[in-house]
Every structure is written in C-alpha cells, then in structure tokens.
Design a protein that fits this description.
This protein starts with 15 loop residues before the first helix and ends with a helix. It is built from 7 helices and no strands. It has 193 residues and is mainly alpha-helical.
Amino acid sequence: MSNSPPASSAGGAPDAEALAKSLAEIAQRSQNIANAYLNRLKEGKATAASDDVGVMPAFAELANKMWADPVKLAEAHSRMWQAQMNVWQDAVQKFFGQGAKASTPDKSDTRFKSELWQNNFLFGYIKQSYLVAAENIQSTVAGVEGLDAQTARKVRFFTRQFVDALAPTNSRSRTPRCSRPPWRAVARISSTG
C-alpha cells in the first residue's frame, strides 16, 4: 500500500478510483491483521481481552443495529458534521468580537469553570467542540432502535464513560489551569542559554 495521497483529478479533487483502491487496500490489510490475530488466538499464542461485564457483545449489537439502517447513520454523521461547522463558525465570530451562541455544560459539570474556557478563543473552541461531539455521540447511541433494555443501558453507560474520558479537561495540554503560555517557556529556554 502506498503512503502517498490518492491522485487528484484535473479539478483538484481526489481521483475517486484511486481513493476507492486505497480504501480497498486498507480494508484488505485490516482483514489480514484481524485474521492473523484470530489464528494466533485459536493456536493459544495470543490472549483474548477479558470482558467480564459484556461490553464487547453490547457494542457489537449496537454496531449491527446502526449498520442495519445506513440512512439513519448517515443522518447522524451529517448532524455531527453540521454541528462542528457551527462550532467553528461561532468561534470565528467570537474571535472577531461578534456575539456567538455557545453550548453550555450542565450546571453540575464543574470541568469548565475556569474563566479561560469562556473567554479564551482557543479554549472556548476546544470546549464547544467537545460538548457538541459528546452530545451528538450520546444522542446517536441513545437513538439506536432494536436493542434490548439491558444492552441499551449498558451501551449508554459505557458511551458516557468513553465520552467523559475524552473531555479536554482530562488532558494537561488542553486544560487552561495546567497550560503555560508559550512565551514563558520560550523566555525560560532563552535565559538558560
């Protein structure tokens, strides 16, 4: 498989045939990797991940239900894309001093209480992007039909845990109270010589 991007057509857009070939190669390699792992597992040369609470079967069932209705899945993807575009547009408006609407975290959510999450362009954008993505992911999962009640509860619970784990407040480099302005680091480096 080539590491170069797909060839472009005359108009600058990626060549559809080259893109399809590239995606087919990725799918084939992925299948080969999965088959190799399953063979090693069968031979006792690999260990399966422990899943005492049944997360993997629950999410496999979720995936099956989601893929069973590709139109609904495409609609969810479109909603997420549009919501992220709105976040970007609002961030640009805020950057230029225009009023912008913003998602607000639940009152009980204290992760974004620093003033920088509200007043700093970059941290505000990161916060909004996360909140919109979290809301979209959770509402998409909650909207999947056909899961039994226990599986639906399990999937919603573990999706919430996953989304919360991805919060920018869990990353030192994306948290205002932990981030140092870059000019302090530059000053420290230049003073030591």
